[in-house]
Design a protein that fits this description.
- The protein is α/β, with parallel strands linked by helices.
- Among the domains are: 130 residues, TerB-like, CATH 1.10.3680; 263 residues, Rossmann fold, CATH 3.40.50.
- It is 48% helix and 8% strand.
- The chain has an eight-stranded mixed sheet. The chain has a two-stranded antiparallel ribbon with strand order 1-2.
- Helix 17 links the parallel strand 6 and strand 7.
- The chain is elongated and about 75 Å long.
Length: 577
């Protein structure tokens, strides 16, 4: 609370100064303007964090290239490279707290550590590509410094405000356009002063709207190729085109030109009107007549990003499945029987002989549409993988979330991506809810190759319907949607949703509650105090600075827990491991 209030107070103060300060020049503070000992601590903290986040051998080149570029960015001497290389290779982890304290002792950073987030974002976007691993690193370092995650989100949104203003300028009257150009020219002059101490790069001045307080603080973001000095330049436009994909249309610009295999329908529907530097794709697991007859219905309250899409796929078959599910539960199986079935599943003694004969006699009602959709979901997942690999969404991190067969689409998407080259750095987080896929850890290991942040497995132990459709399968006792996935990786987060989900259909009906439980922001909580959404925060609604301090003090404890295996959240109140 204290850290967030301090940050908000700083924003408010700078905004007032911007409104009344007239011609006051913005301050431009970049990482290389820190004293050399603090620049060393800054780079070391990033190196240690990279090693903790991405220790795998296949991530070695990313860690090494990142730290080499970052040493140059901070204008550190080349003779520090051996030490930094050692940090990214896993040595010196015990120095996390010391390096953090050194950074926070800087007078300017002590007042506003958000400048570190700004600088890391600037570095990560310098070539027009926003790697998901870089965003995860920014979240990690920001959290260690006690910076609310919303600080990063505001900085990202501010960049888009700049782009929006640039486009609006083209369609306004000549007088308004002239005034804007004059103001932009003045800002450009200030930015070039700061640029002279940094070297080449496209400079984007954060102006207007949400960006106003950041402009007052001099939050100029450095992106891209040498020689360009404004967003309107050819190079600057090229950088933004790289970030946002084909002609800036993003995923809405994708149309399946011809039938792919057995797939008949595949289209991205916008859930929001905004644009963002990271996007979210939601995947519905079935459709049914009435309130939930559209792909977008379950996700109406989700607000994980300003740019969200819903995948529309095979609606004819998903509608048949949804109506079959509805008929099965509301017609053939009464509530008392459902409770009995739930108890049977929870007891762990499910066999073909324990299912009621009355249920087995109508099994074909669900078996046929389920089998069809089970096959098609795998095909759709593989197709989605190639869409993402082709960067139709641009060079931006993607979060995937889905329930039931939608989660299965995600699972097969990730499995397909893991077999391809250049698949890393695209996916930030994935959330699989009630996933009808195998739950053995060996089948999930491949997912860690392509997911940079969290792999959340939301399950319900008493989901009798999911158990029933797997009754003839050899993997019926190892279904991810029924149990935790025991994967020894820091990305793996198991969440027991049994207190929220009473049956498989609740994944659609209780989606608002489930989203909050897994740490996904909704419209309802948009204005509430944030902090629980941090990728690394072990608590909710507490001081981020206090959380960061506690985390640094318990780093060894967390590491021991990670080594023990994927963490299981016993209740849906914890959003991260």
């Amino acid at each position: 609370m204290a850290a967030e209030e301090k940050w908000k107070g700083w924003v408010s103060k700078e905004q007032k100064e911007a409104e009344h300060g007239g011609e006051r020049e913005p301050r431009v503070l970049l990482g290389r303007q820190l004293p050399e000992p603090r620049r060393f601590a800054y780079a070391a903290l990033c190196g240690i964090s990279l090693a903790w986040l991405f220790p795998e051998n296949e991530q070695s080149s990313f860690r090494t290239e990142f730290i080499k570029g970052f040493v140059k960015w901070l204008d550190l001497p080349d003779d520090v490279l051996p030490a930094m290389t050692a940090f990214v290779d896993g040595l010196g982890g015990e120095g996390t707290e010391a390096f953090t304290e050194i950074l926070l002792k800087d007078p300017i950073l002590k007042e506003n550590p958000l400048l570190i987030t700004q600088d890391l974002l600037s570095f990560s976007l310098r070539d027009g590509s926003y790697d998901a691993r870089a965003r995860v690193l920014i979240c990690r370092v920001s959290w260690l410094l006690g910076i609310p995650l919303e600080g990063l989100e505001v900085l990202e949104e501010s960049l888009l405000e700049s782009l929006k203003e640039q486009k609006e300028e083209e369609s306004e009257t000549a007088e308004v356009s002239r005034k804007k150009k004059e103001r932009r020219k003045k800002l450009k002059r200030y930015l070039l002063i700061g640029l002279a101490t940094v070297g080449g790069g496209t400079v984007i001045g954060l102006t207007g709207g949400l960006a106003a307080p950041l402009v007052a603080a001099g939050a100029a973001t450095i992106i891209g190729s040498a020689g360009a000095a404004a967003l309107g330049s050819t190079a600057g436009i090229a950088v933004m085109a790289s970030l946002f994909g084909a002609a800036g249309a993003g995923l809405t610009g994708y149309k399946m030109k011809k039938r792919v295999g057995a797939i008949e329908e595949f289209e991205f529907l916008p859930l929001t009107e905004g644009r963002q530097l990271h996007i979210t794709i939601a995947i519905t697991g079935w459709l049914c007549t009435g309130k939930y007859g559209s792909f977008t219905a379950p996700w109406s309250s989700m607000l994980h990003s300003s740019e969200q899409y819903c995948l529309a796929w095979e609606s004819k078959y998903l509608m048949e499945l949804g109506n079959a599910l509805d008929s099965l539960l509301n017609g053939f199986v009464n509530m008392m029987a459902q409770e009995a079935l739930k108890f049977t599943v929870l007891s762990g003694i499910v066999t073909a002989l324990t299912w009621p004969a009355s249920l087995l006699t109508v099994a074909n009602v669900i078996d046929n549409p389920w089998g069809v959709c089970l096959h098609r979901s795998a095909q759709v997942g593989k197709h989605l993988a190639h869409i993402l690999l082709s960067r139709q969404q641009g060079q931006r991190p993607v979060t995937l979330i889905g329930f039931s067969l939608g989660a299965r689409v995600i699972y097969f998407c990730l499995q397909e991506m893991a077999q391809e080259k250049d698949s890393q750095g695209i996916i930030e987080d994935v959330v699989l809810l009630g996933a009808p896929v195998e739950g053995e850890a060996k089948h999930w290991k491949a997912l860690t190759r392509v997911v940079s942040g969290r792999i959340i497995n939301g399950f319900c132990r008493g989901d009798w319907l999911l158990s029933f459709v797997y009754r003839t399968s050899s993997v019926q006792l190892n279904v991810a949607g029924l149990q935790p996935v025991d994967l020894d990786d820091r990305r793996m987060v198991n969440m027991d949703l049994s207190s929220v989900v009473n049956g498989h259909l609740d994944y659609m009906k209780q989606m608002d509650t489930i989203l909050k439980a897994v740490g996904i922001k909704t419209k309802e909580c948009q204005l509430e105090e944030k902090g629980s959404g941090s990728l690394f925060s072990p608590q909710t609604k507490t001081s981020q600075r206090a959380a960061g301090s506690e985390a640094r003090g318990e780093e060894n404890t967390r590491r021991e827990e990670d080594e023990a295996g994927g963490s299981t959240c016993p209740t849906p109140d914890r959003s991260t491991s």
